[in-house]
Design goal:
Blueprint (H helix, E strand, L loop, with lengths): L15 E3 L3 E2 L7 E2 L3 E3 L4 H11 L12 H17 L2 E2 L6 E12 L4 E4 L5 E3 L5 E4 L6 E11 L5 E2 L4 E2 L10 E5 L25 H10 L4 E6 L1 H4 L3 H7 L4 E4 L11 E6 H10 L4 H7 L8 E27 L4 E11 L4 E2 L9 E2 L2 H21 L4 E8 L7 H8 L8 E6 L11 E4 L7 H10 L4 E4 L13 H5 L5 E6 L7 H15 L15 H19 L13 H9 L2
Parallel strand pairs: 10-13, 13-14, 14-16, 18-21, 18-22, 22-25, 23-24
Antiparallel strand pairs: 1-4, 2-3, 5-17, 6-15, 6-17, 7-8, 7-17, 9-16, 10-17, 11-12, 17-21, 19-20, 23-25
Helix pairs in contact: 1-8, 2-8, 8-13, 10-13
């Protein structure tokens, strides 16, 4: 799901020795890290599995499809061949109950109450889906209310819903959070670093809690961090949600996005200026605005319940097998999506995330070759990340191995092919003591770990590590660097932009036999070294003091 930037690292000789390194952090005692000899990691494994998973035969690896069946079969066979054992008793799989909802016959969005009726076409102007398991969904003459950023955060003294009743109404919401556009990391919502309140998932959740009938987020490319093409391809076709006992009855009838230009017309029809109201919504004390307009839209739902699968492999530890280190990557992608100009409608997901899935297998091979570490290693390929981290959330909520005994882990979500770099980019740098392990692994490479340059894009909340972090498990998520050996930061930014504009969540994220894998393999070595160090130490790294997840971790460990 994440928009990746570039890759980093030089491919060093097949054996890297990370010495007994010490890193001193302000306020922390120095920590010693075990020596790790990284065995040769197979570039052929990376190439062959990435190519296979992203071939048209897998039809974009959507959950609940023939592409899923092929994917989980391949992964279980590769895990077994690598020398892992099934990670769920005698099974390689963990069932993840999902419901797939395919919206059809989606009407235009009709807006009445102004001087003339407005009509917006599905796809080009707006997209809509429903979380409710009902064959027909209709929102008719629903009063429209602009609720700013749609945030209710009492701990921050902020409530966009204060003094307004939106039950049965259609709420219009801004993307990101009120601090977007600031330069520092100071502010009610973390300055330019997006909080979870800025994510679309939160905004729909809160709208449902407030009793809204429908929720439409205004798409704006910069604060969303992706163009309308990504919204259109990601929000059309079958959508997956976690199965619920009430069939989604507590959710809004309709959720969607609307183009900023279309929203401006709606505001004008209400006698309001969108730009002015966007500025007003950034200020504490903003009051929701009754637009005195009515919205109508309808759709029909095709409903399919399915048990998708997480794939789980285990390498038991030698001396402390009941302590676990976890590697995660998501195997799913979007399936069939909006066709490219040449008619290709398969979102192959080669970068996102056939590469990360292949890395799980390559790492499993390397771990077995090196021999089991002291702690057990879980290799977890999760489903339905593209649908809102559903597979990782299901595992975290229903862990096969206790989270209180899960030391920490590493998440891998999309390697890029931009080439070797001088740095790696850490999403959420400074949050946990796992940063020290990464810095130790990088030391002999001559590379550095840097904080993500665009925290306003909210990458921390957009990949599977977040499901574990919310429940207290320290997870590190880093990407290839943006300061390329060949071309520096300018080249790194250009490569990231090219991928985001032309391939991300589209049919052209395809395997290329001419890719240069040197940067990928160097980064894979770092993933190996960080996890292996964690599996060979007796330490239990925690979230840093003051971090939002530390209290949850402390409680979990206390009750282990």
């Amino acid at each position: 799901m994440m928009l990746k930037r570039s890759l980093s690292g030089l491919l060093l000789p097949s054996l890297l020795l990370v010495g007994c390194t010490q890193i001193e952090e302000e306020g922390d005692a120095s920590a010693a890290f075990p020596e790790i000899a990284a065995p040769e990691l197979s570039v052929e494994t990376m190439k062959s599995i990435t190519e296979e998973l992203s071939s048209d035969a897998y039809e974009g690896r959507a959950p609940g499809t023939a592409g899923e069946e092929k994917t989980i079969k391949l992964l279980s066979e590769k895990f077994a061949a690598a020398g892992l054992e099934p990670g769920n008793g005698e099974s390689w799989f963990q069932d993840v109950p999902l419901v797939g909802i395919t919206a059809t016959n989606i009407s235009p969005l009709k807006i009445t109450g102004g001087d003339s009726e407005l009509s917006f076409e599905h796809g080009s102007d707006y997209v809509a889906t429903s979380y409710q398991e009902q064959p027909k969904i209709a929102v008719a003459d629903s009063d429209m209310v602009f609720v700013g950023y749609g945030i209710s955060a009492p701990e921050r003294g902020w409530n966009d819903y204060e003094g307004v009743d939106v039950k049965g109404k259609t709420v219009i919401i801004l993307v990101n959070d009120p601090d977007f556009g600031t330069e520092s990391l100071e502010g009610d919502f973390g300055g330019r670093a997006m909080t979870y309140y800025g994510r679309w998932t939160y905004k729909y959740e809160e709208a449902a809690r407030q009793g809204a009938a429908a929720a439409l987020i205004i798409h704006d490319t910069d604060p969303a961090s992706y163009g309308w093409n990504v919204v259109e391809s990601s929000w059309t076709g079958e959508q997956f949600y976690a199965q619920s006992t009430n069939g989604g009855a507590d959710q809004t009838k309709l959720n969607g996005w609307i183009q900023k230009e279309a929203a401006a017309k709606i505001f004008a029809a209400a006698g309001q200026d969108l730009t002015a109201q966007m500025a007003a919504a950034k200020k504490k004390g903003f009051k929701a605005i009754d637009l005195k307009l009515q919205a109508s839209a309808s759709l029909e739902n095709g409903i399919k319940k399915t048990d998708s699968k997480n794939v789980v492999g285990l390498l038991k530890g030698k001396t402390r097998p009941d302590e676990y280190v976890i590697y995660t990557a998501h195997w799913d992608h979007l399936g069939r999506c909006k066709p490219a100009e040449d008619g290709d409608d398969i979102c192959n997901g080669a970068i996102d995330n056939a590469t990360g899935t292949a890395a799980l297998v390559a790492l499993a091979e390397a771990y077995v070759k090196a021999g089991a570490p002291d702690r057990s290693i879980i290799f977890l390929a999760v489903t339905a990340e593209e649908s809102g981290l559903l597979g990782s959330k299901y595992y975290a909520d229903n862990p096969i191995y206790p989270l209180s005994q899960t030391v920490g882990g590493v998440n891998m979500d999309a390697f890029s092919m931009a080439g070797p770099a001088k740095n790696v980019v850490v999403v959420g740098k400074g949050k946990s003591e796992l940063d020290n392990y990464l810095e130790a692994a990088l030391k002999d490479d001559g590379r550095i770990a840097e904080a993500e340059p665009t925290p306003e894009k909210g990458f921390y909340y957009r990949s599977d590590h977040f499901s574990f972090a919310k429940l207290g498990v320290p997870m590190i998520y880093f990407e290839g660097g943006d300061d390329l050996i060949d071309g520096g930061r300018e080249a790194g930014e250009a490569a990231g932009k090219d991928y985001g504009d032309n391939r991300y969540h589209g049919p052209k994220d395809e395997y290329d036999p001419d890719w240069d894998w040197t940067g990928v393999m160097a980064d894979l070595k770092v993933y190996y070294t960080v996890g292996r160090m964690l599996a060979m130490t007796e330490d239990w790294p925690n979230w840093n003091e003051g971090d939002e997840f530390r209290a949850t971790r402390d409680q979990s460990r206390a009750g282990k």
